Protein 1
Amino acid sequence: MHPLRALVLVGLLAFVTPLSAQTVGPTDGPGRLVSRLETLAQNGTVEQLAQLVTPRVNDEALADFALDFFVPGVTRTVAVERDRLPLADVPAGEGYSLIVEVFAEVGTRARVISARVDIQRTSDATADDWKIVDIERLSIVEGLYQLRMDSARAYAARNLTIDAEDVRLTLLEGSAFLVESDGGVTGMVLVGRGEMRFTPPSATEKSQLRIFGGSENLVTAFDGVYVRFNPSEYLERVSTDVLVPQAVDRRVSGKAEEIFERERPKAYSIDMSEVSRNQWFLLPPAGDFVSEIRTRRFGTLTYSKSSKQVEDISFFSRERHRTISIYSSIENLRSHGLSYNEDDLVDFDVTGYEIDADIDPRRETIEGRARITIRSRAPVLSTLTLRLAEGLNVTSVTSVELGRLLFFRVRNQNGLIVNLPRLLPAGVPLTLVVSYGGHVSPQLVNTEGVQAGPDETLPNPSNVSNPSEPSFMLSNRAYWYPQNAVTDYATARIRITVPDEYRVVASGQSVTGNLDLRDLIAVRGQGRTFIFSVTEPARYLALVVSRFVRVVDTSLTVSTAARTNGAASVQHRIALSVEANPGQTRRARELALRTEDIMGFYGTLMNDVPYPSLTLALVENELPGGHSPAYAVILNAQPTTTSQLFWRNDPAAFNGFPEFFLAHELAHQWWGHAVGWNNYHEQWLSEGFAQYFSALYAQKLRGDGAFTDMLRQFRRWALAQSDQGPVFLGYRLGHVKDDSRIFRALVYNKGAGVLHMLRRLVGDKAFFDGLRRFYTDFKFQKAGTPDLQRAFEQESGQSLGRFFDRWIYGSDIPRIRYATSIGQGEVVVRFEQDAAEVFDVPVTVTITYADGRVSDVMVPVTSAREEHRLKTTGVVRNVRINRDSAALAEFGSL
């Protein structure tokens, strides 16, 4: 659920593709009227416009529209009809409501005005004459500019500097060319011998730079640079005093032109190819900056500062598709903090979805219609940005309250921008209906499982006698329905139609009978329809289509303790269904029993079960793993018992605990769904918790040995990979190296190990009470590490700031030296650690007696030097430290 935001476009308002014009030509009456509007926009007057309207349009409304419609000094106009619907209460073919877009150029500047134009045929039915009966300006896109680089005007530069936050570009010797617009100098092209210095302030970002380039500050040579900035900042960012006009060298200017042509479309570009042969651009807002830096060692590197993002500074490699750094500027860090809630940054909340879709998994297509109920959060809202897969074509966007709406697709960002005809105040509800369809790429099920790496043996397809049954999953990263830009808790109703041989498992409780979705009728083919109701809020909606058979359809009861003293226990009744590919029915029956046991165990631990139903879908795949949306678990099962995949070295490979993936995925119903995470930095609140809960279940099912084996694996991977970054880095862990095992080692395993250490420091009662407090306080909300810290501090009475600072926000591993001595009736243990960075570490001291008895004592090590005297009850044979691997520390003798 975490697309790498800065890989391609840096989150800028760029590459906006307008709607395709309708195929209605200008040869019919309404088309000719649109052509007349185009002519008037360039050469007409208000009086001529007035001749096209009827008296029903009042003078004031016409005058207001004319102020936007007529652009002084216009040199070229294009009018495009975007949409046409019949007018109500008018005979068929006699009246239409048109959406018209007028593009107006004024030299090298342009703007676009969109309008609703209601027209009717005149009373003379024999005449092909149409008049405007109502007109309303819907929106204006101002500030479009052409960019130009004057290759005939060059400047010699020696030690020219261009600065943005944490980056300095220095042209040691070479030539500079200005990039200009009617708004002023908005960029430069540098050619010659230069140096880039990128110096992020935080230790975390420095560590990622070290992984990428071998140094905590990236200093590298460049031979070409393209930069964009707001014209008002030209003199502030550029050391213009070293620019000296020089004669143009055609070889040098040719290099500059090549850089300009290649790099300029990558940011702030508006695709207006339907109405103009020129390229059009927005000016960067004040404070924004983007640079494309052609280095000798790393290829082209991109630095961006984008005010539209909380983490507004990004640094990445386009060629390698690698994000190297993303972080907040000093100003944003001060205002938002590290654990910002992404919900606070969006302009609206989605409160409900109604989705009606026809899906063909064979062709990987969907035809759908979605009703989205939103509530504005911004003081005023003029546009909405929704996520929708780029391959899906949007045919219409309407509003129950506002009628038809103008919309744009955002290229390369799975985006849909909807313009509102008037400002929407905060708190006001709005209902959108979006019709869409086309090809959609499925999401792999094994998003949380083991993935094939360089030391795994991959199967030879020719040796697989029983290939996997195909499945088609659409979930949080497929963007298969229009949704908020961030995951957003909402209720939903879903109706999915698939070909007859398929079945559907989806978020929500299966509903029999009809589901009233009012006018939401997708383009429906022949097939079977499945209906689901999401009554408890879900962060996102998902489904999987395959040749399933229903194996189990039952219910289970989970008894949990009362939430208030003196009250009776609570009985949670959960509808449980299991669907499986035909070759997995026997395995599915076994897993149904295990699912009941796990759900009961977790429900008892947490005193709650978040969702009223659960469907386990067992699909075939050579790769182990699974995915867990709300209300469902989709689990991979190998199609044969003779799979040639062998997993030897992965953080999520627990050979002694075959139930791991099921236990992990079921835990996500509580952690990741019932309680979400504020932003990608907080993924450990989902994955680390699910990993630890699976270890708790391993202990229940298979005993202390299995639990200790998992702790040992947690520790081994945490110690091996912690130098790759802190747990708090989230999905970015391992990204620079393209090694997903690093992410699992730290977010999954180290996160789980940290929870176990916390449990040992505060004690079992405070730990589980703290978990339940955290869960209850943030059920169906997003939370962050500070929220978890507060819950545990309230239950334990301890200050835990240093604990979380070291283990979650830091990447160091403590090195603890120790010495033991056996005395009369006691064992003395001394510990030392680095006084400059003290960790809180619960350490197990194991005392083995001569008669074979073994005693484990937990010793909290919380200072640079300390001594503990442990009472003994017999002759001591030996003393061991951290035998159970519960402490994520390196130990050595004093």
Protein 2
Amino acid sequence: MLGEIAQAIRQRYSELGADLPVAVRSSATAEDLPDASFAGQLETYLNVRGPDAVLDAVQRCWASLWTGRAIGYRQRQGIRPEDVSIAVVVQRLVSAQAAGVAFTANPVTGARGEMMINAAWGLGEAVVSGRVTPDTFVVNKQTGAIASQEIASKEVMTARLESGTREEPVPAGQRRQAALEPAQAAELARLGATIEQLYGQPMDIEWALCDGRIFIVQARPITALPEPCAALEWKVPREGGRYFRTSVAELLPEPLSPLFATLALPLWTTATQQIMYRSMLLPPSSFALATVHEYAYYEMALTAWQSVKLIFTMVLHAPLLLRMLRTAPEQWTEEALPRYADVVKEKVACDSAVVPLPGLLADARQIVDAAARNYVSIQLVLAAANMSEAIFTGVYNHLIKHKSDPPALTFLLGFDNTPIRAEKSLYDLAMWARGQDELVGYLARSSGKEIAAAYESQSMPTVVGESWGEFTRRLAEHLNRFGHAVYDLDFAKTLPAEEPAQLLETLRYFVSGEGRNPHQRQAAAVAAREQAVASLLARLRGLRLRLFRRVLGWAQRLAPLREDALASVGLGWPVLRRILREVGRRIVASGAIAERDDVFWLQWDEVEAAASALDVGQSVGDYRQAIAERRKTWQRERGVTPPVALPVKGGARVLGIDFSRWMPARSGQKAGGAIKGFAASPGKVTGMACVIHGPEEFDRMKPGDILVAKITTPAWTPLFALASGIVTDVGGPLSHSSIVAREYGVPAVLGTGVATDRIRNGQRITVDGDSGVVTLDESGS
């Protein structure tokens, strides 16, 4: 260290006090950005004593800017080395009996009137490093009253030694004792409000409690604070009805566009009512799809007599139900899917620009109707596939498996399905591109958005040469085969075929040579499956052998169909969106809306009225103000997490049975450092969370990140090649996310209900796919 700097540090340290214990910590210029907190990336040293030790700690703190961990973090965040500088803060150490972190706004809900406090025994290092689950208090900033609290079992604490620190067990009598008293929490809230007022923004504060006094040791702006959640009242539309966000609602994670809600939902309702009547003789009035605050729900409205009748009907018609499930795959592959594909093929061949408006609307309705009937058929395929896997797993685990045998999952992996074929197609394109010298250089230094812009404009980058034409031809072939996979079932949302930039980021990853070869991964799964099957066939005899063959054959036959079926739901969406955009273009010409895509913010009857008026040369009303209000409402409602069942209290209880455990998302999650969900894919991984709300954010995903999303659908599969773990709000052990995660061999915890609200982008988290728990590192530095 330079002599002048060293001398200055020694001088200032001596002024603090001879041999005074201090904390040495970082303050970097790139910290606390909106999407990059740098939490835990740079080193902190506690209980440092003596001038020589302080100088050594300052050097090591400076040097921590260049550790592999910090460099990798900056690369993932797109921060250049020359844009980062670091200062080192040396401050008197507070010998804390308790310590923690406080947020002057609720980081979960965004509520500015609440303060969230984490507290644990000892120095604050155990809290900010995530080595202990702290107590969590939510405090009203105005009154100081505790609104809610969760007292954790605090197993370890960071204790001060003569020099340095170490982790020690918390005395048994203190583990379940609150680390803060109500009066101390109120005082901390008062201090937090004062600090927030001083800086003029919500703050992330580190505090320590010593001899009854609260010390503030650090304050920094909160990064990525969500907007305050809208205060919505979740009333049921119909008294006595039960509402569930399951099945098709799982593919609709956000509020619906007005056009989807008024065109698609009624057609989905009709198709579903027909199958429910055929299978269980339920009257149409007892079942429908509805919206509550624009979120899709299944509505069941059964009288007491109908409920009793349903039970007897299900018993009496059990053979019919089983036959429907047994024949579901053939009905889908031979009837529903071909019928849907024929409708799509017919509309693709039409030139939308010359079709009159009434004809365009009829075409749109026909496509959506075919899609709805296809999806209803898919529901039976999914039910059959899920049942076959559950039965096979139960039979295998309880009647066949020895301790040394592989898990049941081994027997169901490695089969080809649409998402896997799409990944192999993209990988093959990348491997071809690697052999083209000029092209591979261009792909390496260009972003997915830049490549997509060149592809869509049909302009050849000057540095690429002749290989560009072949590349675009191969990419177009890939998008024609797989580009209809939906990010979200709502047809107002874009598709990979329209905006391939996100897909091209994964292709660039494969081009770099870092991605795992999907052909090899699948071959390894096939080899493991075949070896496991051969081993058991050689060992089993008699009844157990026949039972094993039967349940295994059933499960393996249906395993690939599940993903093929889900991948088909948006088959008609590319041509449907083309038709609806043409409708929008003509309405724009009338002045009724500002842009062609505003058509998705109209209701179906408004589109019909506009089409009828334009068809006879009449004027159309002005919808621009109504569209602006609807967009505003949609944004407000998008910020909330809808209940999985309504009424909120007891809504999941039907016929005296609590169905909450079978819902696709958990409810009633407690605050704290752990989030519970469904254990969907085994394994455990710790890494940086990448919270993705939609395809427009796909380019934020970096190799090794843990993907955190509301749901994933087949169109999200390219991100799985980059992800080290998966966490979702919605989904269960047999959902798309679970199945694909297991194929990729990455841990997954699904159906948490709150992951995208509670986990911050760039936060360090641990995903335990065996226990179904996500642990959050609440580190603030």
Protein 3
Amino acid sequence: MPLRESDPVSPGVAPSPSPPQTDRKDTAPLIAISATFTAEALEPTLAFWVRELQLHHQIRFAQYNQVFQQLLDPASLIGGNKGGLNVVLVRFEDWARFRDGVNLAELEQNVRNLESAVTAAAHDAGSPLLLCICPASPDFLSDAARAGFALASEESLRAALRHLTAVRVVTSRELSRFYPVPDSYDPHADELGHVPYTPEFFAALGTMIARQLDASRSRGYKVVALDCDDTLWQGVCGEDGPEGVRLDAGSIALQQFMLAQRDAGMLLCLCSKNNPEDVLETFRAHPEMPLRLEHFAALRLNWEAKSANLRSLANELNLGLDSFILLDNSAAECAEVEAGCPEVLTLALAADSSEFAAFLDHVWVFDHWSTTEEDRKRAARYAQQAERAQAERQSASLDGFLASLKLEVKIEHMREEQLPRVAQLTERTNQMNFTTVRRSEAEIRSIINSGGMECLTVDVSDRFGSYGLVGAILFRADAKAITVDTFLLSCRALGRGVEHRMLAHLGEIAKERGLEEVRIPFAATARNRPAEALLAGAGAQFERRGDSGLIFEFPAGYLAAVRYRPSDLLSGARESQVSRTAVPHAIRGPADYSRMARELREPQRILETVQSSRRLRPAPLSRDAPRTPLEEQLAQIWANLLGVPAVGIHDNFFDLGGHSLLAVQLLSVVRQTFDVDISLKVVYGSEFTVAELAKAIELREIENAGEGRYAAILKEIESLSDEEVRALLAEAEDGTANRNP
């Protein structure tokens, strides 16, 4: 356990070197955690959630209280973490733990230093960074000035770091809103080993970290399809009449939640079994509803199966079914969609609308790590797309339609502010994606800063408006050729020849640099058939088989002259439609978001589930059953902490998997349960067993009882006969004396 805290390091001071992280023998992504306090108690909860999310992340803790060193040292655990998640846990008062009193001016300076260190780390690190501001102790908050400092510092950090898309700040108030723990502080464990929180709070904090880990991984959901009756409102508009339906608190909360999702970039659709005129009239009859008809990108209001309507919506929006979430109150309708469209994430609402808000708050899939400007404009872009579709239907020919668009394509080197959108494209683009390599912001920045890669962005607009940043190309150049790493174009810009202009631009760059060819690797998936059709149409004669797929080796001059033909575009569109409607897609992790939102949203329940899951470990070394009520109670406490089904009274704590952190937590539980202080010397004695701990507790209780209790015990002993005394002594020697003789 730590004996003393290190002083925080100013960003202007070179940090002490951390041990290099090159000794890891595995390539699994890391959850790298650095804290101002002892945080290893998070491990069981994080390990549980990693399993629930079916991820492969490993959990690593940095050295005790080395936050600034970890943020500033490129060779540290956090500095060297690539493709995982970096987590920094800060409790402001820890910076003054071993000082004489709290100097708020020094703490304020440390907060500013933290802001600078996080900013520097976010720019250079290879993983997104989560900063959690953990709650202060009741003693720290008892002073009004200190309480004001804590609140102001949380808000200032959140505001100062908001522009960093690779950083997510979770304040103590946000944590408390989602996962409230009434009594989170553990003064005894804080004193013994700087473990300031109860197991229940560590379960809440670990869950929030896992939730942000899940949000940092792009899941690809873009559309929420909503039912109407008993979902958007209470009642049936076809029976109660448009004016007869009710807007209760639950339905209003759901609509407000969905409006916020739209503002964050999700598309909203109606998919409901109703007469369309009834639904439209209901919206007109209730102007007080947060959601209005113009908020929906598409409508399916009829009596057909919802699975069929969802497929129709996917075709209209040119998106895959695995981009959709269905929210419906009917279990039967949800079951039909799960059977007919297994790619869709189906969420069944509770029958009681008062449950809506809490359920939606804990559906992790609605969390957004960050929201880009492109996300905020998505709904408007799809409204423009609807206008384009209408213009296409009215055109006499495809050539005429494309000419009427007056398309403008701008291809240029990526700017820093475009990085979040480029990373988002690598995560979300499936159809026009040559290799489907997914990259985070940090990874893209790292490979560009290393000098080995260049990044081009593609911005498209036409007479209806801007498509936004819809494409990206990552490539490297050597003495002979350009080799493409990533080639992406959003589905909303497909079928207009933009992808051909991107290919030609690569050929032009190669020619300008005096290079002979452009090499383009292609890895086939179930959904990137349009990409394969593009390359084959551009030059199937330059295709060869490589070790991990196809490689197209285009002469630079040939590729620079590539132009689109409408027949190619129609072929690509047909391939795109086949991939959307006929190819099942089951790559997404099968996290049970509904179960998580219903059953695992309360910290105590989460803690119990974590402890229960850990009891699947092997049985203890012995089976010596408890002999007294005290031993029985202690054995249960040990089993909960150690994650084993049962504990024998002579099993050694450390042989069962215990360690110093668990020992501190154990002694804290003992203090709370039995109101006695047990020294760590008992833990590190020759044998630390349930039997020995029970004896230590009994001795402390006797010592705490005072002279009156001693006198009563002596008087009781004096009243015994010689035979009774000898029997009691013999029983004590056998270790079977009752707790209260």
Protein 4
Amino acid sequence: MAGEWINMLSKVLYIDLTKKRYWIEDRRDLFERWLGGIGVATQLYKEEVSRRADPLGPENVIILSVGPLTGVFPMASKTVAVFKSPLNGFFAESHAGGRSASAIRFAGYGAIVIRGVSERPVYLIIEPGRVRFRDAGALWGVRSAETVGRILREVTGGAGVRSILRIGGAGEKLVRYAMVMVETFRHFGRMGLGAVFGSKKLKGLVIIAGRNYRIPNTRKYLELYQKIFKLTMGPGTRKYHDLGTAENVAALNAIGALPTRNFSSGRFESASEISGEKLVETVLARRVACSACPVACIHLAAIREEYETEPFMYKTEFISYDYEPIYALGSNLGIGDRIGMLKLLKAVEDWGLDAISTGVVLAWATEAQEKGLITKDETLLDLRWGDWKTYLKAIQYIVQQPNEFYKVLALGVEEASKRYGGADFALAFNKVEPAGYLTGPLYFISLAIGSRHSHLDAGAYSLDQKLLSTGASLPSPKEAVERIVEEEAWRQILSSLVICFFARGVYKADLVAATLDSLGYSYSEDELKKLGREIYLEKQKLKREEGFSAKNLSIPGRLYQVDTPLGKIDRRYVEEALAYFDQLIKEG
């Protein structure tokens, strides 16, 4: 095993917000057995979090973890966050890029565990061997996560080698789908990490790097690095650079898989106006990359507006866009106005909301008002498909919560439908609003059993699309689950290294084994695959201990009514798959 390299990764920083103390432990035991990233984070969660812990109570923890390839090989650029989700009360994970992973690694840590609750708002400055607790009273109440970042950049050192994580108003107000912003254009978006930050009175983290590491086998490493660099600049990642994930808008619309007006259709008549192609042509300002990534998939749009109080004076705002926010705040709300859609993306960024959940919640509210289940007495607004100006106000109300309706809406779409009706068209899986692929049954099965509730949980939308392109028949429910689990099990290795999933086509088992060998590890391809399955089962068993059961999930009725590229989804097929999944996990 990689003795020296593991020693450089195996330090875990523990922070107690209640007592304002910190300490460092060498957890080589975990990093030797579970590699890093999600493998180690899952074990730390098992140690730290009671199965009955309140997600918004002091017993919940925030775990940030990186892996052996972090900052060393191309596209090893992600940080894994693990916590108990305030949306559904189960083990959850979220991934983010930016500079967070490199900053943690080069501050000298493989993982950070944040415990307890602070009496007063606080932000932390994390450096090699030291944590400083700083009063955030002046920042508490600053609703814009971007503004908080600007302030922290001004008052802390480490420019160029630091990462800044922070929440906006949504996290402070404990909106269950609040996100954590990283730098300015990346996020821990899914599962409500921002609300966990808010519950701990933790406004932000500034992580400052300062360590250097010596590669064990420099010659072998450099040869591999050059090979991987060329592969990551090849056809497999070109689309992420050229159009970004927004390329999916036109492609999914063409096959009838672009969720539109609350998943009532898979085709949007104005898809071309909000497509990746049109955005590049009309508003793209520049591309940005995460640390240690040559691809630059982050696309920034520039919009120019006149100041309301100063005629002929203009401001230019830069807004990051990706496929998921475009679907959620574009086609799913019936919005074909590019500038209006971008303003909604900017609003969720400022308030610190998960774009996917926000769009799905607003789509449900629009349909519920349309059907008379709620009225303007609840919404305070006339919600209409395509009316982005009214949706801007509704986003503000989700955070400010001016009445009982918006307090409930801040709990998520499933809770809102329990109170006001409309469960059939309340799009949620295990209380989490879905990512935007109306491709077929395998994708929705993967969402129901996932831990991230991201399109990259098993990537089963691609399994649906492969069935479509080949004309193959649906696999049996048992075969479908086994394919999903096999794919997601391998992704646990990528999430332990930690590799961006956009590089999943590059980092195959043989190449992963070679990268680890260059760092002194010794894993065969079969050993890696076995470890991936073990990590996957560890996560699923944790959720079972917390009360999760796939066969007891309620799948929204809308998904059995709408046409997908593979036709209508058969309820019995999904139910059999979920029952088999429970059996599979139980048997291990």
